[in-house]
């Protein structure tokens, strides 16, 4: 299916972490369709990266895959330097990379818990100073991908929920410090994503879809559309906000 372009983003340079599949790929695809040069950061599968670049090859923009494991200490500055070697300035940084280990809050797997929390916040913490130096004033956008688990309790979601809550707090702090540099920092949050029929949690997915006022679950493309909107010139006055894209699911009692 063709992806509609968001006007006004032609020629901008974007970096998306966790970008070669799922939600990250949907975001990269939207930005590329809008005329951006998109760097697809990934950690593991070269095959996924090759498929992603091929998928985006017919877009208005262009795509380049960069293999750096965002979970490794101090990797974010190296990733940004790899971008800077090709483009001196960056317009959009989308932090989407995440890990998830289901667990109970009272019986957590402590190592996995901290791994999930660390990946939620560490790349953005590591990158903050360099982003302040390299992002284009006025068009600079940092967008973090969050979830409803940051503010609501989802069963067995404690590590991701705590990580995303910390990420949303970090967004607010960065927004205050980077706004004078002409860089807007925000987050986009969503609930359970529709990844297609037939999964093991299909009954739960159907129940959530039935509760969603807009009549279906959120699709990755829905979130990608909001990310692209936050990148436009018209969104320049939005700072430190968490924009929820879930079809109204989270407002149901």
Order of helices and strands: EHEHEHEHEHEHHE
> Average pLDDT across residues?
95
What proportion of the residues is helical, as a percent range?
A: 25-40%
Strand segment count = 7
Please summarize the sheet with the most strands: 7 strands, parallel
Oligomeric description of these chains? single chain
Low-confidence stretches: none
Task: Report how far apart the termini are.
Answer: 35 Å
Rg, nearest Å: 17 Å
Assign the structural class, choosing from mainly alpha, mainly beta, alpha/beta, alpha+beta, or little secondary structure: alpha/beta
Explain what you see.
With 253 residues, the protein is α/β, with parallel strands linked by helices. 40% of the residues lie in helices and 15% in strands. It has seven helices and seven strands; from the N terminus they run E-H-E-H-E-H-E-H-E-H-E-H-H-E. The protein has helices at residues 22-33, 46-56, 75-84, 110-134, 158-178, 202-211, 220-230; strands at 13-16, 37-42, 62-67, 92-95, 140-147, 183-190, 242-244. It has a seven-stranded parallel β-sheet, with helices on both faces. Helix 1 packs across helix 7 (220-230), helix 3 packs parallel to helix 4 and helix 4 runs parallel beside helix 5.
């Amino acid at each position: 299916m063709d992806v509609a372009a968001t006007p006004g983003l032609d020629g901008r340079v974007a970096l998306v972490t966790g970008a070669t599949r799922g939600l990250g790929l949907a975001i990269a695809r939207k930005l590329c369709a809008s005329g951006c040069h998109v760097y697809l950061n990934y950690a593991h599968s070269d095959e996924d990266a090759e498929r992603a670049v091929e998928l985006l090859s017919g877009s208005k923009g262009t795509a380049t895959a960069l293999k750096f494991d965002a979970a490794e200490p101090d990797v974010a500055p190296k990733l940004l330097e790899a971008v800077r070697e090709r483009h001196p300035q960056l317009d959009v940084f989308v932090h989407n990379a995440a890990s998830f280990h289901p667990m109970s809050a009272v019986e957590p797997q402590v190592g996995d818990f901290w791994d999930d929390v660390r990946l939620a916040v560490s790349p953005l913490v590591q990158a903050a100073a360099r982003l302040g130096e390299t992002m284009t004033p006025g068009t600079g956008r940092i967008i973090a991908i969050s979830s409803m688990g940051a503010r609501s309790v989802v069963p067995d979601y404690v590590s991701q929920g705590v990580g995303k809550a910390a990420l949303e707090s970090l967004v607010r702090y960065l927004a205050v410090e980077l706004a004078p540099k002409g860089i807007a920092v925000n987050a986009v949050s969503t609930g359970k994503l529709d990844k297609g029929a037939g999964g093991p949690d299909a009954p739960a997915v159907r129940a959530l879809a039935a509760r969603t006022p807009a009549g279906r679950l959120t699709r990755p493309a829905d979130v990608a559309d909001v990310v692209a909107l936050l990148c436009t010139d018209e969104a320049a006055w939005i700072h430190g906000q968490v924009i929820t894209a879930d079809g109204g699911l989270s407002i149901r009692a």
